Amino acid sequence: MAEETKPADAAPPKPAPPPGPPPPRNPGLVTFTIDGREAVVKPGTNLIEAAASVGVSIPYYCYQKRLSIAANCRMCLVEMSNAPGGKLMPACQMTAAEGVSVRTDSPKVKEQQRATLEFLLVNHPVDCPICDQSGECKLQDYYMQYNATASRLDVPKVKLQKRVKLGALVVLDQERCILCTRCVRFMSEIRKNPQLGVDNRGSHSVIATAPGLPLDDRYSGNVVDLCPVGALTSTDFRFRGRVWFLSSARSLCTGCARGCNVFLDYMRDGVYRYRPRENDLVNQEWMCDEGRLSYKPFNDARVLAARVGRSNVPRAQAVAEAARLLRAHAGQGTLALLASPVASLEDLLAAALVARDGLKLSEIYVGGRPDGWHDDFLRRADQNPNRAGLALVAKAFGLAVKSASDLADAVASGKVKGVWAVGAELPAPALASALGKAEALVVQATNEGDLAAAATVLLPASPAPESDGTFVNFEGRAQRVELAYWPRGESLPHWGLSAEIGRALGLVSRWASARQLFEDLGRRVADQLPGYAWNSLPSVDRRKGLIPLAAGTVDGRLPGQRERMPLDQSGNVQWTRLPSSREETP
Amino acid sequence: MSKATETAVHPVPAAASPLDAPFPTKRMLVNLGPSHPAMHGTVRAVVELDGEAVHAMKLDIGFLHRGFEKSCENVTWTQVFPYTDRLNYVSSIMNNVGYALAVEKLAGLQVPERAQYLRVITSELHRMCDHLTLISAMGLELGAMTVLIYGMEARDLIWDRLTELCGARLTSNYARVGGVSRDVPPGWNEKVLRILDRTEALRVEIDRLLTRNRIVIDRTRGTGVVSREDAIDYGFTGPCLRASGVSYDVRKASPYLVYDRLDFDVPVGSNGDNFDRYLMRMEEMKQSDRIVRQCFDQMQPGAIAADDSRYVLPPKPEVYGSIEGAMAHFKIIMEGIKVPAGEAYAYVEAANGELGFYAVSDGSGRPYKLGVRAPGWNMLMALPQMMEGKLLADLIPTFDTINMIGGEVEQ
Amino acid sequence: MSQAALQRLKERFPDAVTEAYTGPGGDDVALVKKESIEEVCRFLKSDPETAFDMAPYITAVDYMGSEPRFELVYQMYSTTRNHRLRLRVGVPESDPVVRSVTPLWKGANWYERYCWDLYGIRFEGHPDMRRLYMYEEFVGHPLRKDYSLRGRQPLIPERQVDEPFRGPGPSGS
Predict the structure, then answer these.
(1) Which DSSP string corresponds to B285-301?
(2) Chain B CB contacts of A244 below 8 Å
(3) CB contact, 8 Å: C79 with chain B?
(4) What is the pTM of this model?
(5) ipTM of this predicted structure
């Protein structure tokens, strides 16, 4: 074929490319409107977070900010102006786009929320009276806000298993599960240990482990917190108490050196459970199972009365006896101070002050719990919450740090005849009998144990929830615990006992509260704790009358029977410190 | 009262003979203590007597203050109803209704018609009880003890019917947010009509005993006079205000519930004395009877509470049978109904006057503030002025007819 | 409820009335500055168009945590015009003194005593400013939000009883 020549006239000019999107109003950020309010957020923020930033709350079940997006609950559907065909889009999945108008209050969205709840409730058992989640259940809350209509069901509900023991700590009620798969995603994405999955399909879907295998991950307790309904419950807390009777204190887990932030839930003066508190820098929102159960020594086997020898005596008498023994041995130069890194910074500061100024000691022996298991997630090998704090205190007071086995050798060789133990935790059980051979053993203990049994004078100490305090974790981060309830029985926090001993030795102590103590002595370690504000959490200086229930709780849940409000220095309630939903990270 | 007046001795002018000399007297402070049969409720009156005349009077209240307002701030909205019962304890349903109206105003709830009729019927029955109590007590204290017995019989008959309906004679706890708590038992309407007939007979009897009784007229006519201007200035409402000549009745001025459909008269007096106040109450009982009969004629079967799960407990079969009912019941009881934030003042014509409830909500399940405008308060405030210069014996019928109920005045 | 009275008040006192609105159920409300309350009340009573001749119901609310802390509420009613109006007066905690309206209406006497007794708001020009419900030795103002629900101040020592049940709400010290 002959070569064809192209026609002489050139091809028509290419049309100009269509105009691109206009540049964003705030460069680098996305500006859009939600419910008429303007929101400016970073690109990639999903709508739920973006709406929360301007005070619009969108309900959701399956969304969790640290897990992948599943979008299976369909509760967060909203109307978006750029949605194809006017469909409602899941707010957890959609990211904000420039100039989009989002509506969460249109009739279509309201009907969608109502209908979604109706579907979720179709097979939900009538378990509220026996369900642990009552009072903190998302189904209940959203039902009142978004549905509040009667049931239209006229067929029987699907029956499934009610008490499946998934693991040592977790029990599953398959009927209550709404299959949001938060637990499944947590195990596979955060723990990288996919022990949970969804079995069967349709309305017979259930959460299950692999057949015959338990849920034995060491962080399995977190799925109980994640579950928005009462499907996954903790065997430890099951049926122990109704959550609206519990008050919450912002505290730290004292199980290892990480110091996971927790809510300590208590009623009267017993601790019922720990719930992790959000802190991106320390524990995100998780804690290990062992830490979750580490509140039990606060309740059980406590030392609540002072003992001299084998008989209970009033605390004042025991303190006088202890001071006499300590003074005697200090005078002869045969006294040693054994400090436990389970005690708080305030406890250790007070003990160090009394030791150095009142007893003229120059060394501090470090006891503490023995090392335990550790992993690369949260758990540290060091099972003591305040070892770093102890090191700081020793340095500040110029005390040389030695180990507890050194002390045992010193006692065995006779160089040390008197021991003052602030905290009875020891790294090895044999050390208790070794130290018991000392002539005078003054022990400040929270719980009964070997060292407490061997003590000449036993003073009752109170653990973390019974005083405000500071713990310095392995990273050198100082964190505050909030007082939950007053010391039980005759016990006092370690700093209170040290102050009493100091007074008996002739020292003048001016501290009526942990805050005053920290203001007085904390200066010596404050430079090592940059940016630490002791007042980051409220403290209670003196007992003020309880505040009416209308006030609310620290984490926005129903108030407990005995509620203590955050008080400022003059004892007035600090209303601005009560967040309504999420807890701010201190 | 200063110490000086206590010992002031009136100067004795010189006289012809010692027998003609006027008797030297001094003013005496008498304490009509909180525990006194004539002091309705626990009110302490310290009167400075000049012979039999009251020179000055000082009132001391607070002996029955039970912390109503503060207690209400600590319980849920629905748990407040028993507290309101104990305000004006002789006509408690009107307290319930007033409070329910305040909450419904804040929440924007519509009460179904049958519930409105039931509220009106029970309110009027309790109004009759209140007036019967007052008239019986007045009769008793003026010496007509038979009147007490007749009045008590009528009151007991009404209370028996209300027991069948509400469960209690005095502290009825009948109204709920959005309606009433339960419907009438079968045959109740006829029973009430029968006792209304009996009550009417007793009322006629009491009328015959008291209204033209020489002693009653002498003791109550012209005593405890409050002028029209004073009555308004003091904030009187109800029968006491109307006795002074001001025709103000909340049921006619701003009709609430179904009062605009009912045909009744409001008696207005002219003298503002004890006798007029007594007559107001006698006549109002007759009108209440009329209202109750009309309500029974007009009332239709229907719902007794609004159909809104956010404020009203779902029916029990739903609570036990469906998860929605269980959750609604649970949330309403444990957290309280979530009344929208704001404040509202609702008022009813109680037996004593305008009973107002000022409710402030913060959006949580508990009232932020609940204030009560007690009608008896204003009358009690005016009592010292009413008694100045009058005889001590006039205090008795005056105290009776102003109908100060300790519960509502001292909350 | 009366829009006319509200309008008239707003016209006459444009500075003193900081806000005027109609609340739920049709209640007309005006927020009035504390300094002008006596003047405003005198006008409302004497002006023939508003004619609020009946003694108002005066109560107070403790909005603890917001500024001003207290709010005095006056519910006015006119017998001649049959209309109502609510005045809300913000009273700061630092200066809880307000001019009394007892010279205008004798019936305001006890209401102001109640506000003093239970909230701590003092009224200047009141003929008898003393406690109403509480006994004179009582310390504090019970209806304030920071006063404990079960705060007890017995004048005679109470007999010790183990854990008496004192009703719902948190048990006090």
Answers:
(1) HHHHHHHHHHHHHH---
(2) 334
(3) yes
(4) 0.84
(5) 0.91
